[in-house]
Amino acid sequence: MTKAELIEEVASAVEMTRKDSEQIVDTIFDSIVHALRSGDKIEIRGFGSFRTRKRQPRVGRNPKTGAKVDVPAKKIPFFKPSKELKDLINSHPSGDAPPAPAAPAPTAPTVPPAA
Fold first, then answer.
1. pLDDT averaged per 10 residues in sequence order, the chain, 115 residues
2. What sign has the CA pseudo-torsion 20, 89, 41, 77?
3. How many CB atoms lie under 10 A from the CB of residue 64?
């Protein structure tokens, strides 16, 4: 799903204009980015949490030339899904149990050799 598709989904779900729903989606994303930049953790119950992780400086390699490159320390965004989200993703779409694995193919009966 793209950002444009998300905006359309919000607009149709709450019956508002596309422009208003775009402003809502942009505000949510901007709020998440602002909180992460200031070092806060965002927790959305039933969905997951966003936070930053610090990567240590390291020596990398340029894949084209093979030359060593110093990679500086940096913060990266990290998302941890909630248990509820994991369960929803892994449940069968119709709410039933997932289909049972197929039984192995039957083998041809062995016939003893003629004497």
1. 94 92 95 94 95 95 94 95 94 61 56 59
2. negative
3. 6
Cβ(68)–Cβ(59) below 8 Å: yes
pLDDT of residue 5: 95
- Sign of the four-CA dihedral 13, 17, 18, 24: negative
pLDDT at 48: 95
Are residues 55 and 93 in contact, defined by beta-carbon separation less than 8 angstroms? no
Domain ranges of the chain: 1-40, 43-92
What's the CA gap between 87 and 81, in Å, rounded? 10
User: Sign of torsion, CA 60 66 68 74?
Assistant: negative
Q: Which fold has domain 43-92?
A: HU Protein; Chain A (4.10.520)
- Report which residue type is found at 67: A
Distance between CA atoms of residues 34 and 49, nearest Å:
15
